[in-house]
Amino acid sequence: MKIENKNVSQKNTSNKQEQLFSFVLPVNGQATNGVVTNVLDYLSQIVGSVRKEFQLFKANPKAKLVLISTFLLLFSAAVLMFYLQPHFEAFNANRLATSFGKIFLGITILLILFKLSFFFYSVYLYFKYKSIPSVSDELLPTCTVIVPAYNEGELVWHTLKSLANSDYPAHKLQLLAIDDGSKDDTWQWMLKAKELLGDRLSIYQQPENKGKRHALYRGFNMGTGAVFVTVDSDSIVKPDTLRNLISPFVVNKDCGAVAGNVKVLNNSKALIPKMLNVSFVFSFEFVRSAESMFGSVLCTPGALAAYKRDAVFNCLPEWINQQFMGQASDIGEDRAMTNMILKQGYKVLFQRNAHVLTNVPETYKGLYKMFIRWGRSNVRENINMLQYVFKNFREDSKFGTRLLFLDQGFKLLMTYPAILFMIYFIVTHPVLFFSATLFSILILSTVQVFFYAKRYSVSESFWAYSYGLLFAFGLFWITPYAIATAGKSGWLTRELT
Questions:
Q1: pTM (2 decimals)?
Q2: Which range, of 242-251, 302-311, 454-463, averages the lowest pLDDT?
Q3: Domain spans in the chain, listed from the N-terminal domain onward
């Protein structure tokens, strides 16, 4: 396989381009082979990073207040856990005095052991994972990039410009933008992009708003590329994103789809995007790296994904006509496409070096609506996955796919028992509940803190703690609600605000 060689000047240019992206904030720049050899230098970098963040807080006192409050709350919980230890022992002793308590404790221990084993196995897979380097221009296949847009306004202009600036052979790149019946000035911004890019861009209008799935369907049928790439219209890609995203199809003939590496674009504007940026890094760079080692990434994100043409057309009629509980599926088109491609026996991979920056909700209302949509899609696709995952859907090992499915399945199955236990715990021992919950957030969030700090920024990593609090107390209801309303349709976050 011919791998593209990059000279020194190209590396320097790439480094300058990297500086344009806020998520590239290396902490250990002085390290050799990724290992910090001088502890004092490393501590100095940490102090400098924290100092820089607190300087930024002067202009954003709300962020400073949130982080300080988070640390005080979690530290208090850790102290409280120490003093309440006798009460926890008495609570557990009372539970073990009943048959139901023993059964519940046994199930809990088994699930914890499964989750711990799964986590440490994922750590092992994460360290084994390597991105596939970009192949040469000659080996890159033809590519059709599809950008569906609805009420995105000026954002679609920036998305299309970033795609047009891609370091991808121009004669192999087809760029399609489809306005899905927007009610704002999205079409005018597409016209402006067309005026700038000329024949490099083709733009189309849907006669009415029919949903993202139908806009993509139109793009798939018009596309001429051997590989389809879908990009959300509020996302920005780096110049090397497309070639990195598509290279796995050249290297691995069994590759049917590739997931890109998603970061938050608007993480400097509000507190929720700051929290989500840390969460996204862990979700993509850790979780999907492990999934990729199984060849079974469960969801290729709408913000950036690539699909083999043959794999798409093998399932396109089923995908566009997909229904759930008698209603047309108008959500979860990315998860559904991934599921159908996995079902065909293809591998679905993750490319850590294929970066995209995307907008996320800045308000609690926008956030929970997005999560409800994701949650409903997750329920639907896990049900669909059950229909094939334990069959001979792939020639090589199916262990990883089944393990990932079981992990997802246990989460869904234990949702309502966990909610009932939480209510019981709150009613009978409110102080113990809140102290135990806060201490659990401290422990679990620290994993994400270390991961983000090692790869990017120490100071920004602390937002994992705030996000842990938000998720535990403000978003815990999403999964049970999504399960109960899985049959409901509606995008929820597409209308003008």
A1: 0.86
A2: 454-463
A3: 128-399
Q: What is the pLDDT of residue 63?
A: 87
Write the DSSP string, 68-135: HHHHHHHHHHHHHHHHTHHHHHHHHHHHHTSHHHHHHHHHHHHHHHHHHHHHHHHHHHHHH--PPPPB
Q: Which helix (H) or strand (E) holds 352?
A: strand 347-358
CA-to-CA dists, residue 466 to 345, 462, 497, angstroms? 40, 7, 26
Cβ–Cβ < 8 Å for 27, 45: yes
In the predicted structure, residue 28 carries a pLDDT above the cut 70: no
pLDDT of 239 > 90? The answer is yes
CB 343 within 8 A of CB 394: no
Q: Which of 102-106, 172-176, 362-366 has the lowest mean pLDDT?
A: 102-106
Q: Beta partners for 205?
A: 179
Q: What is the pLDDT of residues 191-224, one digit of tens each?
A: 999 999 999 999 999 999 999 999 999 999 999 9
What is the secondary structure of 392-460 as a DSSP string? --SSS--HHHHHHHHHHHHHHHTHHHHHHHHHHHHHH-HHHHHHHHHHHHHHHHHHHHHHHHHHS-HHH
Helix (H) or strand (E) holding 278: helix 271-281
Q: How far is CA 400 from the centre of its chain?
A: 19
Beta bridge partners of 35: 32
CB of 329 closer than 8 Å to CB of 373: no
| Residue 245 · residue 231 · CB < 8 Å | no
CA separation for the pair 335, 326 (Å, rounded): 19
What topology is assigned to 128-399 in CATH?
Spore Coat Polysaccharide Biosynthesis Protein SpsA; Chain A (3.90.550)
Beta partners for residue 356, in sequence order: 237, 262
> How many CA atoms does the CB half-sphere of 353 hold within 13 Å?
14
Residue 272, SS3? helix
Which residues, at least 6 apart from 338, have a Cβ–Cβ distance to it below 8 Å?
Answer: 257, 259, 297, 298, 299, 300, 305, 348
Instruction: Specify the pLDDT at position 59.
Output: 59
Which three-class secondary structure state does DSSP give residue 376? Answer: helix
Q: How far apart are CA 61 and CA 52, in angstroms?
A: 14
Q: Which amino acid is at 1?
A: M
Q: DSSP readout, 4-26?
A: PP--HHHHHHHHHHHTT-TT---
- Percent above pLDDT 90 for the chain: 77
Helix (H, G, I), strand (E, B) or coil at 64: helix
- Local structure of 258: helix, strand or coil: strand
342-380 pLDDT tens trace: 999 999 999 999 999 999 999 999 999 999 999 999 999
Token output for 328 = 């047309």
